UniProtKB/TrEMBL annotation:
<keyword id="KW-0677">Repeat</keyword>
<comment type="function">
    <text>Assembles a suppression complex (suppresome) by tethering SIRT1 and MDM2 to regulate composite modifications of p53/TP53. Confers both deacetylation-mediated functional inactivation, by SIRT1, and ubiquitination-dependent degradation, by MDM2, of p53/TP53, promoting a proliferative and cell survival behaviors. May play a role in the regulation of spermatogenesis.</text>
</comment>
<protein>
    <recommendedName>
        <fullName>MORN repeat-containing protein 3</fullName>
    </recommendedName>
</protein>
<keyword id="KW-0968">Cytoplasmic vesicle</keyword>
<dbReference type="Pfam" id="PF02493">
    <property type="entry name" value="MORN"/>
</dbReference>
<dbReference type="InterPro" id="IPR003409">
    <property type="entry name" value="MORN"/>
</dbReference>
<dbReference type="GO" id="GO:0001669">
    <property type="term" value="C:acrosomal vesicle"/>
</dbReference>
<dbReference type="InterPro" id="IPR052472">
    <property type="entry name" value="MORN3"/>
</dbReference>
Length: 251
């Protein structure tokens, strides 16, 4: 069967207008009905490739990569400061499906900064957080909370390293009181030390050491005593709040 090439001249005018109106490739600035403007690459009427979006209402700007109408790839998001009318960088890093993803750096309004991994707009994975107070946390995150193993160094020189859950110290950890020259090592529950040992640590080099050193403990097996204390505490917690205890409608 012979093949006949269809010419654009033989197509209806309505079809030609639709084809002409479709946005593909590099275009000049396109304005939306709501006043937003986009300059960059298109594919099948969707932002695709590299481009810059300006939101009229907030004045915010995104400059980076797009995929099928959503921010995807590497890009920088900046906001307009109403006081100075200048732009401040808010986030630069990876995006996926319109959300912060993989590695990126976020700048908060109060001078705090986070750099690390993201997942669906949440700090998740490994990351380092610089707080306004001067404290620095470095470690694992899950949905914007310290979760896993991590170290937090406080502005006064003290630091904690160990396990975290839901943004609080949970599990085994060590707290270094560098100002007093002491070390607490033990088990934590929701940010509170429950059982452990307190010993001198670089006491002679501490700026404000305690008046007297901690006397040594003479136990046959100190770690065994700690493990038994932890087990007893966990058993008490589990008996008070059993995992299969489902509240009723009357509670």
């Amino acid at each position: 069967m012979p093949y006949f090439k269809t010419s654009k001249k033989n197509q209806p005018l309505s079809t030609l207008l639709v084809l002409k109106s479709q946005k593909c490739g590099l275009r000049h600035t396109v304005f939306s009905v709501n006043g937003n403007e986009y300059t960059g690459e298109w594919q099948d009427n969707k932002k695709h490739g590299k481009g810059t979006q300006v939101w009229k209402k907030s004045g915010s700007i995104y400059n980076g990569e797009w995929k099928f109408g959503k921010r995807d790839g590497y890009g920088t998001y900046s906001v307009l400061l109403p006081e100075t009318k200048e732009y401040a960088r808010k986030y630069c890093g990876g995006w996926k499906n319109g959300k912060k993803h993989e590695y990126g750096m976020y700048f908060y309004n109060n001078s705090a900064v986070y750099e690390g991994e993201w997942s669906e707009d949440h700090r998740s994975g490994w990351g380092r957080m610089y707080y306004e107070s001067g404290d620095i946390y470095e470690g694992e995150w899950l949905k914007d909370k310290n979760h896993g193993q991590g170290i937090i160094r406080f502005a006064n020189g003290n630091w904690y390293e160990g396990a975290w859950r839901d943004g609080m110290k949970n599990g085994n950890g060590k707290f270094y009181y560098s100002d007093k020259g002491q070390l607490y090592e033990g088990f934590w529950v929701d940010g509170v030390p429950k059982c452990g040992t307190l010993s001198d640590f670089w006491r002679t080099e501490a700026p404000t050491p305690t008046k007297y050193p901690i006397p040594p403990l003479h136990l046959v097996d100190m770690q065994l005593v700690l493990r038994e204390a932890q087990s007893a505490y966990l058993e008490r917690i589990n008996s008070k709040f059993p995992l299969n205890d489902t509240p009723t409608d009357n509670e």
